[in-house]
Specification:
2 copies of one chain form a homodimer.
Chain A: E1 2-7, H1 15-30, E2 34-39, H2 45-56, H3 62-86, E3 91-94, E4 101-103, E5 112-115, H4 118-125, E6 129-133, E7 136-139, E8 145-147, H5 152-164, E9 168-173, E10 194-196, H6 197-205, H7 213-222, E11 226-230, E12 238-241, H8 245-249, E13 254-258, E14 261-270, H9 275-285, E15 293-295, E16 303-311, H10 315-329, E17 334-337, E18 340-346, H11 356-366, E19 373-377, E20 380-386, H12 390-400
Parallel strand pairs in A: 1-2, 1-9, 2-6, 3-6, 4-7, 9-11, 10-12
Antiparallel strand pairs in A: 4-5, 7-8, 11-12, 13-18, 14-16, 14-17, 15-16, 18-20, 19-20
Helix pairs in contact in A: 1-3, 2-3, 5-7, 6-7, 9-10, 11-12
């Protein structure tokens, strides 16, 4: 079997943990599997670098920032490879460039454009354990180091797994799988044995931090089977795979919440075609990702209100852009509301079951939780509510859809 | 003017110092000079990495170790470039690979084989300040990161200066130049205005830490003018250049001491041709650099004694190798003595002045300092003495050769 294993920052957070990971890898190697490792930076390192650069300037230039950040994973990959080598097994640490992760030039959030992992394959074929620095890549002409954005090491692992046609991509983290919801909020939260790519994609996009959304997308596209498990125990974890008929029987698989959202509202926008397009184009061109958008029906045919949500960290710049445009348009006031949360239920069963949305809205309403915005997809319903009701909403939804039951 | 500046670890040891260096660079840039920067890792980082790897294993594999260590300079180069950029000047951080430092594959002590710094030149030509991670290179096929050994950033700077035909290579450190001896030992030690490559080479090889010996060798070969100065003040520093007639008037330019030596002695070695060759070949093949060698004349034509010195860190393995060989040869006991120091006087004037050695030996003898080994070159005389007399020897030699006088 060929296994790609990715270890997150807490899994390699100190020397003892790096040694423990090395032992885990060696154990697996002794079962005669081919093994490829991808590592994140040691926990806290990336933030430490961001802080240091932040002390130098409010706006570090992104190209050099990528070079700075990439060193975090180079350190952990080198150390893990040193540890494995010291146990008498052949390992070789590889930078993102050496592993052939080719990206575009969008520094700090580069996209993978090609995988030229011939060197990784050769290493595996000759009995080596490649230990790849995750999160980083190199531009097409091999001239500049890029990084893939937060959680990018997951993407590195899935990309390498897809290139090597690995049998499984194991994502090791500090939790032992994907839960029906955050166990910190709901005691009865249950670990899922299996989940579909689509559900995982929704959960990841909705703030479940267990897997990076882009890596799930990538895994879905190339059908890379993923298992999410803990590096601190040997619990089997959660399998993320192609949807099967079993999964459809379950209406709701999970409840997610995301407190990292802010809502921007513009009043009295002239109701002309192209207005919204212009606004969201400007926001997007500043690399701000808009999540939910609601435009009310114009009551008088002349003016309307538009609300949209953005990550809290981008709220200030999104508001500035919005204000500039509302000025140009002669629209009304633009305001931002940060005390909000997004509550979502996810399940492939929604495709075939009706009344799920109604049940969600009624449950929230029964608990006096006001819904500010709604957004739905085939397998997901999200509501924006007041921040203070987050935990309550998660609990009542987990209960009403009986997620604690197998 | 085109200036290559190299900043050592203490000069970029923390955020404030990095900012101060950036200001210094910008100031120089404003005088319309072309500037290229080479940096070491932030003070203590390289040692920290070595310690961490040492916690994992007594013998980290060198290839991965180089990858680990190289990240220290990548961090400082990125941060300095971010700082310069934030001041409104164009800077670009470059790894050793990006700067085109091509080396052989001798990990942890690689030798530069080629300099393909086209990218550095292009950057300078288009008004950028390249900030190069020192100490590191890449193998010919661009596949593995190497490091150039302790002090390797000096070598990077000189190599880049030679490639660019820079007008000057400024080595910034925490002392403001080259002194007649260690001012910590002799109060009257005087800063030299100018020193020849050869003298500097001897001083560097003799333990003066201000410049790495290989970089002086490189500078001599390609006639790169170097100035050694402090990054903490604007004192003019010491110029290291080609020998001129002025220099020859001075008999002794400096006194150096090196406490990092150990002496290995083998008794009763069969006096046959090829014995010494075999011994030192074995020592060298373990990458241990032998410094001084003394072989006594055989009294009976059958047996002789051999003594040699090695760096203290290599003493144990050198002794092991030696014992193995003495066993094979049927030679006598091999012993190691670590409480020794090497005292040296250096000066190009020795070439034309006689009696310098005699004066040195007499001075040591007058002070009851026993000489265990002697080694001389055209412009240097070194003596191995007991460690405890180190400071005394330095002081009396500094006095007798009147080094405090201009």
């Amino acid at each position: 079997m060929l296994i790609v294993q990715k270890y997150g920052g807490t899994s390699v957070g100190n020397i003892d943990r790096i040694r423990a990971v090395a032992e885990r890898v060696v154990k697996r190697r002794e079962e005669r599997h081919g093994i490829v490792i991808v590592v994140s930076a040691m926990a806290g390192e990336t933030d430490r670098f961001i802080d240091i650069a932040g002390e130098l300037t409010g706006k570090p230039n992104e190209r050099d920032m990528d070079m700075l950040l990439s060193s975090g994973e180079i350190v952990s990959a080198s150390l893990l490879s040193i540890a494995i080598n010291s146990m008498g097994y052949n390992a070789i640490a590889l930078t993102g460039m050496q592993a052939g992760i080719i990206t575009n030039t969008s520094h700090t959030k580069a996209k993978i454009e090609d995988i030229r992992a011939g060197r990784v394959k050769e290493a595996v074929d000759s009995g080596y354990i490649p230990v790849i620095a995750g999160f980083q890549g190199i531009t097409e002409d091999f001239s500049d180091i890029t990084t893939l954005g937060r959680g990018g090491s997951d993407l590195t692992a899935v990309a390498i797994a897809s290139f090597l046609k690995a049998d499984i991509c194991e994502i090791y983290t500090d939790v032992d799988g994907v839960y029906t919801t955050d166990p910190g909020i709901v005691d009865k939260a249950r670990k899922l044995e299996k989940i579909s790519y689509d559900e995982m994609l929704e959960l990841a996009s909705l703030g479940a931090k267990v897997l990076q959304a882009r890596s799930v997308e990538f895994a879905k596209k190339y059908e890379v089977p993923i298992v999410v498990r803990s590096s601190f125990n040997y619990s089997p974890g959660t399998l993320v795979v192609k949807e099967d008929s079993d999964m459809e029987k379950v209406v709701v698989s999970g409840v997610a919440c995301d407190k990292n959202q802010a809502k921007i509202t513009i009043r009295d926008v002239p109701d002309r075609p192209g207005i919204a397009a212009g606004l969201f184009q400007s926001v997007a061109s500043n690399n701000i990702v808009v999540d939910m958008i609601v435009q009310n029906i114009s009551s008088d045919g002349k003016f309307t209100d538009i609300s949209f949500t953005v990550p809290k960290t981008d709220a200030k710049s999104a508001l500035n852009i919005t204000k500039q445009i509302t000025g140009e348009l002669g629209a009304g006031e633009a305001t931002v509301l940060e005390d909000i949360a997004k509550i979502s239920i996810v399940g492939v069963g929604m495709r075939t079951h009706s009344g799920v949305a109604a049940k969600m809205f009624k449950t929230l309403s029964d608990n006096s939780i006001n819904i500010m915005m709604i957004s739905t997809s085939e397998i997901k319903i999200s509501c924006i509510i007041s921040l203070k009701y987050t935990e309550l909403a998660v609990r009542v939804l987990h209960d009403i859809f009986e997620l604690e039951k197998e």
